[in-house]
């Protein structure tokens, strides 16, 4: 598509949005506008203009917009693709598969700002949006600035703690930045051809080092739409909510939702605030269908009740207004669990965060690297963009006697870390992994060790307790082992390392030359018990 045509499509979209803000159009007119403008958006996944500053632009010639719309078609069937990757659990209508093959369908996933970072469990929603964009369906990420103030009861045994306004805004800013960066990276690197072939370039994307600013520039940023539902709920009064939304909800249906029923049967019960959450999420779908042509809402399997609340509300509310409701769909993907049914994405230290500020790329990489053989193939399908043929080859190799252990895990950890943290983050994780590997031949430097200091236990000892002291005394003083006898036995067994070099002498002494740049010493007792010792 030429720049002129692309600009015309954007102008058409902006005109549609501006018009919808001034007055409601007839159903037939709205449908025609969506057919003309939204498919053009879908071919390039261009950003939908939502601010008044960008809405005041000259309208595109109708012929140019229509020509661009006619040329836009999905490059591949999203539903078929998601099913093949294990990313499809339920759909609200079997018609979705045919619609996804013939029509570009804007799709959204919601993310509530319950923390200042998304976690590994949220990654499935991001991946579904990335696949949607690659297949020709424009992805929209929705931050729950309003719903986050209420709290989703789905999958919870108690009510979420109430966050302050400032906390919620900080969380939204952080989450929106993450979504723009990761989805922008996917938009510039991931393609799905008409014959279903996956093309994923590992070259650094232009947006891989972008900040969390909402004014990100460049093609990758233009392909990401991040919205905040507080923009439409913020000005809605309680009476308006009851009149415009509540009147179309049936309490019996609301009580039947699993998220509500399970909480009502628990000791804590459910508050009215949480009870109304499904209506808020349902209205999100209504608003996005009207203003952005959204036709599909995707979410985890625990969101089924909230998603169907949206499709029901679209039908009832628009029919009551004398409009022909568009056919909208919901789809769910499975929750991320391991082979034993435990939630994947939780560690002993809490959630596996996507933000580098909360979890280093090294620790993120290591969590994925430690996936069991029973789970690794499943997670390769769900969490990476590797072609299924390559994953099948890895699965076959795992059954062979000459298979190198953890080859598949390494592929998983590299692919997901690259997607979340970019090439730079992956390089950092690999460098740290090598630096902390006992027996590694890589030369250590202070800068590398300081960079990973937060990822390994550390302590400080005076130079007098290091230089000239036996390694046995140093390891006990550092708290790595309880007694000198334990250290001696481990040395005899070949399990003690100093600066990644195996120690074979029981009476080995630490010299000044052993201190890296005169201030650091890396010790290991076995493969997992490591200690970075600093000179005080």
Automatic annotation (TrEMBL):
One of its GO terms (cellular component) is mitochondrion. It catalyses: tRNA(Tyr) + L-tyrosine + ATP = L-tyrosyl-tRNA(Tyr) + AMP + diphosphate + H(+). It comes from the Eukaryota. The keyword Nucleotide-binding applies. Its EC number is 6.1.1.1. It is an enzyme of class 6 (ligase). It holds the Pfam family tRNA-synt_1b. One of its GO terms (molecular function) is tyrosine-tRNA ligase activity. GO terms for biological process: post-embryonic development; reproductive structure development; tyrosyl-tRNA aminoacylation. The keyword Iron-sulfur does not apply. Residues 470-527 form the RNA-binding S4 domain. Keywords: Aminoacyl-tRNA synthetase, ATP-binding, Ligase, Nucleotide-binding, Protein biosynthesis, RNA-binding. PANTHER family: TYROSINE--TRNA LIGASE, MITOCHONDRIAL (PTHR11766:SF0), TYROSYL-TRNA SYNTHETASE (PTHR11766). Belongs to the class-I aminoacyl-tRNA synthetase family. This is tyrosine--tRNA ligase.
């Amino acid at each position: 598509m030429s720049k002129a045509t692309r600009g015309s499509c954007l102008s058409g979209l902006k005109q549609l949005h501006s018009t919808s803000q001034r007055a409601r159009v007839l159903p037939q007119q709205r449908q025609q506008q969506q057919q003309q403008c939204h498919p053009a958006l879908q071919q390039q996944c261009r950003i939908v203009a939502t601010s008044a500053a960008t809405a005041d632009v000259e309208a595109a010639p109708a012929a140019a917009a229509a020509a661009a719309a006619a040329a836009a078609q999905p490059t591949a069937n999203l539903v078929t693709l998601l099913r093949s990757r294990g990313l499809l659990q339920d759909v609200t209508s079997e018609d979705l598969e045919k619609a996804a093959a013939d029509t570009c369908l804007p799709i959204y996933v919601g993310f509530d700002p319950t923390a200042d970072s998304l976690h590994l469990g949220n990654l499935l929603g991001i991946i579904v949006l990335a696949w949607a964009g690659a297949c020709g369906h424009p992805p929209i990420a929705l931050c729950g600035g309003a719903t986050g103030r209420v709290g989703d009861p789905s999958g919870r045994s108690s009510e979420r703690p109430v966050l302050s306004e400032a906390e919620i805004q900080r969380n939204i800013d952080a989450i929106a930045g993450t979504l723009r960066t990761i989805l922008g990276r996917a938009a510039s690197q991931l393609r799905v051809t008409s014959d279903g072939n996956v093309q994923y370039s590992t070259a650094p994307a232009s947006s891989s080092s972008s900040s969390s600013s909402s004014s990100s520039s460049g093609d990758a940023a233009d392909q990401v739409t991040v919205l905040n539902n507080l923009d439409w709920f913020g000005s809605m009064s309680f009476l308006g909510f009851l009149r415009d939304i509540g009147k179309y909800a049936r309490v019996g249906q609301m009580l039947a939702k699993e998220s509500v029923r399970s909480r009502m049967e628990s000791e804590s019960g459910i508050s009215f605030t949480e009870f109304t959450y499904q209506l808020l999420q349902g209205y999100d779908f209504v608003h996005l269908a009207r203003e952005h042509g959204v036709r599909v809402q995707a979410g985890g399997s625990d969101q089924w009740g909230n998603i169907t609340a949206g499709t029901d509300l679209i039908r009832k509310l628009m029919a009551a207004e004398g409009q022909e409701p568009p056919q909208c769909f919901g789809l769910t993907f499975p929750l991320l669990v391991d082979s034993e049914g435990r939630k994947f994405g939780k560690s002993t230290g809490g959630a596996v965060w996507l933000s580098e500020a909360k979890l280093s790329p090294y620790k993120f990489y290591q969590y994925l690297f430690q996936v069991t053989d029973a789970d690794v193939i499943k997670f390769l399908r769900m969490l990476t963009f590797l072609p299924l043929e390559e994953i099948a080859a890895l699965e076959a190799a795992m059954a062979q006697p000459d298979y190198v252990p953890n080859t598949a895990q390494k592929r998983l950890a590299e692919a997901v870390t690259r997607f979340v943290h970019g090439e730079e983050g992956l390089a950092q994780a690999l460098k740290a992994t090598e630096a902390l590997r006992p027996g590694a031949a890589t030369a250590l430097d202070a800068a590398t060790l300081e960079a990973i200091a937060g990822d390994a236990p550390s302590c400080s000892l005076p130079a007098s307790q290091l230089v000239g002291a036996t390694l046995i005394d140093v390891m006990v003083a550092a708290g790595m082992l309880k007694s000198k006898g334990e250290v001696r036995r481990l040395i005899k067994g070949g399990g003690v390392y100093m600066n990644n070099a195996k120690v074979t002498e029981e009476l080995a002494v630490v010299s000044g030359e052993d201190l890296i740049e005169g201030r650091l010493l890396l010790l290991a007792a076995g493969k997992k018990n490591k200690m970075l010792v600093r000179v005080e």
